[in-house]
Amino acid sequence: MAGRDLRALFSTNDRSVQAAEAFTNRQTQWETVAAALTQHLQHVGAPGFDPEDLEAPRSHVLVFHGVGGIGKTTLSRTLEAALADAGHRPAQWGAPGWPADRILPVRIDLARSVGTDFEQIVLTIRAALTKVGRPLPAFDLALRRYWEANHPGEPLEEYLRRAGLGSRFGQALPQQMQSALADVAQALMLPGTIGSVVGQVTGVLIGALRERRQTVRALAGCARLADLLEAEPDLDALSFYPHLLAWELARLPEGKKVVPVILLDTFEDIGDRTRRDLERLIQRTVWLMPNAFWVITGRSRLQWADPALQGQLDYTGPTAWPGLPHTAVPAARTPTNAGAARQVLIGDFSPEDCDDYLARRLTRDGRPLIGEPIRQVVTARSHGLPLYLDLSVARFLELRRSGRTPQPADFDHDFPALVSRTLSDLTADERHVLRSVSLLDAFDVPLATRAAGLAHEGPAQRLTERPFVRDHPFGLWPFHLHGLIRSAVRNAEDTTDDRWTERDWQQAAQRAFTALGEQHQAAPGPDRLLLIAFLRQGLRLARDHRLNLGWLTPAAWTYVSDSVWEPLAPPETDTGAGLATAADALVELLSALARRQHEHRSRTVSRLTSVLDADLLPTELQEMALYYRAKALRDTGLAAQSRRDYQQVANQGGRLAPAARRGLAHAARLAGDFPTALAAAQNLGWEGRHQRVLGDLYWLQGQPERAAAAYLAGRTEAEQNGKAGEAAHSQALRAFAIALYDPDQATAEIDLAHQLLAGLNLRATTINVRRAELIRDAGSDGVDDQIATLRTELDIAGLASLTPAIELARAFHQAVLDDHTALHATLAQLRELTSDEDHAYFVDIAQFMADLPLDQVSGARWLDGEQLTRSRWRGLVITRQAHLQAGR
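^ that's the sequence the OP posted. Answer follows.
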């Protein structure tokens, strides 16, 4: 860590305390690059430089690292442009001291979103080198051999075009590679037809190299070429081919010589600190090309100099990389002559670097003065902002000066200085926009302008260019404030002359809320991602600032309409402290509905009851809470209470009345009154999910084919209405129905159900898919284990209403096996589970399956009578037994 922190040094009488300082500056980063590259050019131009030396320490890497969004990618791109064309160099950056035509910048983005793999990295470097205008035969021959072995039949030209390398560097690479192959074939005096086959050329060339024939003296100087050509042409071998590139670059004629400057951006995306497969290949490439200059940008320091990585990477330790183990050097304090330190911290710190910085900032006898518990709190609060770390260090010294021993709680703190320093170089309008958007999780320029109440977008646009505004170009709202800056602006004491009053904040919240509503109304078509984004921001604003619900009411209805239940960001309301506003109640309502996929249903009942008792919501939203409480009561097995709530919703005639009538039809089905349930289903329509209700009735009658057809019709209706959750639910039930009569077809239906559930959060539907798997596997080994696991999941979720269905699946399995002993135990379990009369007919069905006489009357009113229903269920078991026998 360079420099002395004089302010910290003069804050204490303790002369044993050592202090160091940090700062950042983009101009100095350019100076660092220029100095390091100049040093590199001198090194590779020296007479003693040998690109084939595999043991010499490497000093040809420069690393810029910092937290995401601080501008590393911008720096990487700007460096590429400045190195490629002096006209693109920022005005404040000084002119370099090397000939422009000697530098060849090559930037490679390693971001996961780009999908760059190791092959593409190697090809990008080679494609860039086509600018030297001549083949590089040693490398080109090895690469051609690798390509034909690993991409048979795939033209290199097509790959380059797909990867965007053709448009970026032209299509000279395939021609140069073919030319290299032809030249080698000619030197070996091979016939033209043989000379076009890379494998034959390679075999003859290896022999010639081993025999040191005069015909291949041009390539014989590459000592390891024969070994590389003999190696299996796999990805590991490819990572050693850059050695051939380094050799070829070194032997270019004077007028063609170039020094590649390879900029690897988003280095953190090649893996993490435990998975280093791609990093190992890249590091090997860097090591084997010592005459190239490498500029690496990523979120954390490069660890290659750490001896502990020996075995994970090929070349490790401070001897191998003398410039990398040095303490992080903040960019603004990097010496003009870059020296040995080749890791430069820019902008925000990563959490690891925050801790390292705080540990090294104040020391006594070489040990950290700031203890680890305090460092953890400061790191978490800082969001990686160096200024916050500086202020926390100053606070630490101030507390010591006052005679107190600093404690972690002392650093759960917002600094007013963050506000004043952030606002200091902003115009009045920009400060106004900044305060307004601090109310928002994310924003775009129009939203920021409307939230600020301005008539022109210029201030908002200029604000987005500030370093504390982060850019996520693929988000609905592409901008968000640095987390710490946002917290400070909202919560720290504002001592500036134009600070806002509480009324100013309230008015800004209302403007932002209204602007969100306008964007929500103008949003194109039904889009769940848009809806969730609007709800998250709108709910937080309405709750935190006690706003009227407004557009949140229709948005809430849209949210529940598809039963997808994405999590909503606002923290759950503290119901123990009471619900004070309609916004509080709506946050709690929607949170309870989303969380019921992860909580015991009794917890859902409790939360919805609190919402209903508070009576803060408009009538239609109270109806929503009542309806979903009815569903939760049914899931927990409280059928009578569930029917009471359903009946109340149905009587009100609101938008959930059809769904409530479906709930009542379900209640009739659960009680075994199948004719009543069938009659009700005829009048439900799509809104009441009539096809699903019919399917639920038909399979109980031993008619799974008819049920599967109804579920298919229900899925089709759901897809036509854009209801992904309902489509997934219908498909899960269809898979279950088909599993009863055709286990082979059921596998494809189960797979489809899983596909439709991808990205959805529907626990009960997922369990129905698992039930389909049980039925499909009935009669096979392992079913009992599946059932035990599923029973545990049901207990955790509080889905008691599904437990009898799982026991019925067990009964089907036991009937197929003719295991009457086990079946009698299951019948006893079913009687206990259905003692409240709901699902009592499951005992009848289990006895139908095994052709056992009914030992008690359930009172079920079968649609086609008991005898025909018994015959159908017994037939399904006999069919499964025959299926299993045929498969043996």
